[in-house]
Write a structure and sequence with these properties.
CATH topology of the largest domain: Quinone Oxidoreductase, Chain A, domain 1
Order of helices and strands: EEEHEEEHEEEHHEHEHEEHEEHEHE
Low-confidence stretches: 77-81
Strand content: 25-35%
Number of strands: 17
Radius of gyration: 20 Å
Number of helices: 9
Number of domains: 2
Mean pLDDT: 95
CATH architecture of the largest domain: Alpha-Beta Complex
């Protein structure tokens, strides 16, 4: 099978991914073999490829927003092994960032499997969707709503899920004002979910093209960081991996408001005055997501009729897609589309 393989981390401009032929993997007990149809291109992929987060292994196939078709199911032939009962060959499924969790620790028992010390992640600990095939545990795969094409559904599986969790963790309630900092794949989905909940949304982004998209999706206001929005926000979500935006986001919050930071990697946070945190403002980080988040987001997206803006790239142009993402040149979400 064809894969875009990362053997050594490097700048996206240097095209560190190489097209490589590798054997098709075999599904083990409780696993499904999936033929990839589409894989979203995520900022986390960019951080992995450029080595901005520690890499547990190399070589590695990135990609964790995967939509495909079940090609084969694990037989469950080992003593004590489990066969696949949730899916059959031919089913369309999705695979997200969380590949597996131990299921036995205190975090898993509390429904916080995203914090499990034994959690493993797709396209990071195990090979992901920048390939024609991948394997995944049946319990961590999703049924994909029929309302979405393969390319449209792929960004929901991380960009959508993380934004959904961020809204939950920041406590966004109907009627509240929500500020979004950065406006890419995740924010353009989150805006629509927030609007469906009855929130008023304000968007801060440096790109005029992204501001136009935000307004077309229902943003009440769109401007650049540092500009004053018409009203203080009740809640805010930071999607851009830029620490300098944290003070800006806090300035946009009312007393008692909450900022959720929905990135896996953040550059240096500047020194800031305590007054920005004072008056009971709160900062929360968003760490991965749970299966419940994924199931709830897919249901909410279908109910809200979320419009997913995508730009398609063939698998062989994964490096170009990552570079376009890095330069802020993608409208909505970049997606690798396979025949």
């Amino acid at each position: 099978m064809k894969t875009m393989l990362l053997s050594n981390a490097g700048r996206a401009e240097g095209a560190p991914l190489r097209m490589t032929e590798r054997p098709v993997p075999h599904p083990g007990d409780g696993q499904v073999l999936i033929r990839t149809r589409a894989c979203g291109v995520c900022h986390t992929d960019l951080h992995i490829v450029e080595g901005e987060i520690p890499l547990p292994r190399l070589p590695l196939v990135p990609g964790h927003q995967v939509v495909g078709v079940v090609e084969q199911v694990g037989a469950g032939t080992r003593p004590g092994g489990a066969g696949v009962t949730r899916f059959s060959a031919g089913d369309r499924v999705g695979v997200a960032w969380l590949h597996s969790a131990c299921g036995a620790c205190a975090f898993c028992a509390r429904g916080e499997e995203n914090l499990c010390d034994g959690a493993r992640f797709t396209g990071y600990h195990v090979d992901g969707g920048y390939a024609e095939y991948l394997v995944a545990p049946q319990e961590f795969a999703y049924a994909v709503p029929s309302a979405y094409s393969d390319a449209e559904a792929a960004p929901l599986l991380c960009a959508g899920i993380i934004g959904y969790r961020a809204l939950r963790l920041c406590g966004a309630a109907p009627g509240e004002k929500v500020a979004l900092f950065g406006f890419g794949a995740s924010a353009h989905i989150t805006l629509q979910i927030a609007r469906h909940r009855g929130c008023e949304v304000y968007v801060f982004t440096r790109s005029e093209g992204h501001r136009r998209l935000a307004r077309s999706l229902g943003a009440a206001w769109a401007g650049q960081a540092g500009e004053a929005a018409p009203f203080p926000a009740d809640r805010a979500v930071l999607f851009a991996p830029s620490g300098r935006l944290i003070p800006e986001a806090l300035r946009a919050l009312r007393k008692g408001g909450t900022l959720a930071i929905a990135v896996i990697h953040l550059d240096a946070i500047p020194q800031m005055d305590y007054g920005l945190l004072f008056e009971e403002r709160t900062i929360r980080t968003v760490t991965a997501s749970t299966r419940r988040d994924g199931e709830d987001l897919l249901e909410a997206a279908a109910q809200a009729r979320v419009r997913v803006e995508t730009e398609a790239f063939p698998l062989a142009e994964a490096n170009r897609a990552l570079q376009a993402l890095k330069e802020g040149q993608i409208r909505g979400a970049g997606v690798l589309v396979l025949p």
